[in-house]
Amino acid sequence: MKNSKKASVLLFLGMMIFTPFVNAQWTGPKRKPDSLRTIQYGPITPAHRTDPQMEAFRSYGLGQFIHWGLYAIPGNEWNGVSARGGAAASEWIRAWGGPTAPKDWKNIYDNLYKQFNPKDFDAKRWAKQAKDMGARYVIFTTKHHDGFALWPTKYSDYNIAKTPYKKDIVKQVVDAYTAEGIDVYLYFSVLEWNNPDYMGGTPKTADEKKRFDRFLQYTRNQLLELVTNYPQIKGLWFDGTWDASWKSAYDFTYKLEKELRDKHPGLIIGSRFRNDEFGARHFDSNGRLLGDYEQGWERKMPGSYEWLDGNDWDCVMTIPPNGWGYMKDWSGIYTKTTDDLLDMLMRCRSMNGNFVINFGPDGNGHMRPEEDRIAAETGAWVRRNAAAVYESRHSGFPASNYGYFTQKDSTLYLTVFNRPVNNILRISVPKNFKQVPVSALLLETGGRLDVKPADMGLDLDKNTYYDILLPSSFQSSRAFVIRMELGAPAKKAGKLMDAKM
Ligand code: FHN
């Protein structure tokens, strides 16, 4: 065989072996499968549910994530030595390795529960803060990868009841947030680092199968326990479901998803829970969403609305670059500002997504001062601009470099992050649009703004333009929202002669 032919055969074989049957992509438009397969373990719920729970999800707009657990005690360091560079993130500190890791570290970590006594924890204070921030849902870590349960589970001794604190933290969070009218989603990590029955690889030997079966039953028990103990919850937020062991349990996870949904009608589960029989996660091998919404937008966002194929989604975001749990030391790293987060919030809303800001309380139950400030500033902004945030949706108006469009019926909102130096916001309107901006005002102040047609008559231009004039006396140190009413254009622009070249 000639060398070039040999190379292409090898390449083809390589692709056969290594191309996964996975359509999940979080950095570009979705790959569509070339051909459809017969799938037994595909989606359980219909695409684009229209029940009240899912409709509420679409109007959450802003959410809060809370990562809290034993990792809040070390706060990413131990005896003054930082875990930076040795652990993937502060809540991953149990996996600290390399030269900086303390001697016998895993054992030290696994005994931290004996000190867990968050004396200042007050779920009502957290819930009030979230409410003031404008969050309409919260995702709370009941159990992270370390396996420690913040509720008194009957199925493991590694839980809150065995700490000096003793009281059920999950219950306090569920009750307090529900009382504030904030929907609660319980974060649950399937993978557990210190559970002898858990394994990353596919169980192969009889002993491994027995152990992993026991782990599956334990997981099922805990999940049923959560939906039974906390019936007010609206959803389960899964994590740690990427290992081969869990992927091989597709028959079990399919049945479990059904069981959870039967037990808790209306329950919302994202795309991270389970895979199909070919190992495809988030989307089955035919490209259908596995779950009620896309749950892979973690610290990243779609580049355009079209990438989403009309799916519901949320984006979960840390304030530091990474690190979801408490980190004592934020020095030397960029931490997102309120303006960064508001920009991301409105970018998500312009594409119909919810934006979820993560908080990592310390071992005593305090949010850090920077988080307090971000919550207060975000809340103040969202209150002034609520109409553009919650009930409004993606707009068909062409994307603008000034900021982000959202729309509700014939009201168009433009959240301006980049104010033009000449104070003229030029809105592009495709010539085939039946509705154009006819009036405008500043949402914060209600002050009217002049709207002027600005058809420049450029040859081959498919748009026409409307200028919104900002008074130079209007000053704002943050993004601001222009509210425009849409209506029929005053008169149709006459056809100009095309340039001849
Ligand atoms: O490994 C975790 C990480 O610690 C954190 O909990 C985030 C939150 O979305 N999820 C995992 C990684 O995807």
From TrEMBL:
Q: Where is the signal peptide?
A: 1-24
A Pfam family reported for this protein in Swiss-Prot or TrEMBL = Alpha_L_fucos
**Which chain regions cross the lipid bilayer?**
none
Residue ranges annotated for the Glycoside hydrolase family 29 N-terminal domain, each copy included: 40-386
EC number, as in UniProt:
3.2.1.51
The protein's matches in InterPro entries, at most eight in alphabetical order, are given as: FUC_metazoa-typ, GH, Glyco_hydro_29, Glyco_hydro_29_N, Glyco_hydro_b
Family annotation (SUPFAM superfamilies): (Trans)glycosidases
Superkingdom of origin organism: Bacteria
The record's keywords, sorted A to Z, are: Glycosidase, Hydrolase, Signal
Q: List, alphabetically, the PANTHER family matched.
A: ALPHA-L-FUCOSIDASE, ALPHA-L-FUCOSIDASE-RELATED
The text of the family note is:
Belongs to the glycosyl hydrolase 29 family.
Main function: Alpha-L-fucosidase is responsible for hydrolyzing the alpha-1,6-linked fucose joined to the reducing-end N-acetylglucosamine of the carbohydrate moieties of glycoproteins.
Protein name stated in the entry: alpha-L-fucosidase
